[in-house]
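BACKBONE STRUCTURE TOKENS:
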Amino acid sequence: MNQTVAIFINSEEKELLLSLAIAFEKEYKFNTKLILRDKGVKKFVDKFYPNRSKDIVLTDISCELGNITSEASKIEKKYEQKISMLMSEDRALGQGYLFNVEKIPDVYRASWSHEKKLNEFIHIFKTHEIALNGCDIVIRQWPDKITTMISKDIGASCFTFVPIKFGDRRFWSDNDYITSTNFINRIKKSKIEVTNENPIEYVIESHANKININARFSYMDTVRIAIKLIWNESKKWIRGKQKKDSYHYLGWLPSVFRRITNYNFVKSISKTPKELSQYNLCFFPLHLEPELALLNFSPEFNNSMEAISMISRSLPADSLLVVKEQTLCFGVRSKWYYEQINKIGNVVWADPDIHSWDWIQKSKIIATITGTVGIEAVYMQKPLLSFGAHQIVNHLPTVFFVDTFAKVRKAIDHIYSDALTEDVLENSKLILQKAQIESSIDFPEIENNHFKNKLDIDLAKKTLSHLFSEYPHLRKL
């Protein structure tokens, strides 16, 4: 009997995911079941692949719930997870945990009572249990802990096809943290020795680079963004297509104008590397909030202000902590946030127009919670303080996982003792690069919008060939 593959399809990368479903069926003879976010996605699937009878629309699933607290306790006991932790990773239900971006627009669901939030969560959980029943393999665009928990319980394997943070290369992750068993093992087992051979030059991920390059902070651009936002939001409101219990109508409009005033303020108090040349520098770039990078990939620690405090109090007198704002976050923080951090004597704001690579190259230590900067630090042969427990770079000898003040101070003292030689730093870079290349395939088609409004079964076969080469047991199911 052929095995069943469940493929979650939302609004993003839906063409690739539908192509994967067709390739699974026609090339590898698997049964497929599409789990569709809503009727809008169902309409898209019907356009390319009509008359599918086994697919499930999540919003169409109904399930009866008993006593809410009793149902919640059963889930916690069965899956050995706290629902409060899982809800804290949701941008709506867990909005109260976003202490560092206090100007995020309000979401209706964020102000619900505890019971109503539990009811919402349990309904989502139950619908996913129903949707995943009888599945052997689960494919999704991004990791989702609800899906992972249920898949593990029913004995299904769960995968996402995600960027590996080296150019446009992608790999199949088998966990919730954009790593994989094979990727981790390649780093742990690698025994590279430094040679005279030139390594492959590091290539920045094109999607992230485009966001930084295209960021504009003029008043004219701000007005254009505001007009576009008002137009799009109004169309949705008139047509009744705004998301239920989501952001308020025009809720993001104040952030559009706040971004330019905050940018100008940070620019006025910021420093350049040249101005700080007499100091040793520790560079800490802030993260995009509220996004998966913090809420999901570092659920145990995601308070940037706490990290800044720990580092600041651990640096010697000849050092400064340089904090750089994330390009897309100027509109979601208050001016107070920037002023408060600026009051710390050995902390300065980085000139927002200077690329992070320039700061990394000038710094003695790099610090991050999650994200690409950790990988870039390894490539530029800089010691790294990693506050995120699940970063792939944590397995390297030049990266120090820190989640307490004591660990931060110990790591900084060790780095300042010059215990890390150039050979050790270069070896870390080579190990990471080798593991990234061996674990991934080049897939620029996603960033080049190759799949926009069309399917490509040949490219889907390419991704599945990579999946089966990394996890050959799947072919035997």
Notes: Residues 206-437 form a domain with the Rossmann fold fold (CATH 3.40.50.2000). The first strand starts at residue 4 and ends at 9. Residues 95 and 129 are 25 Å apart (CA to CA).
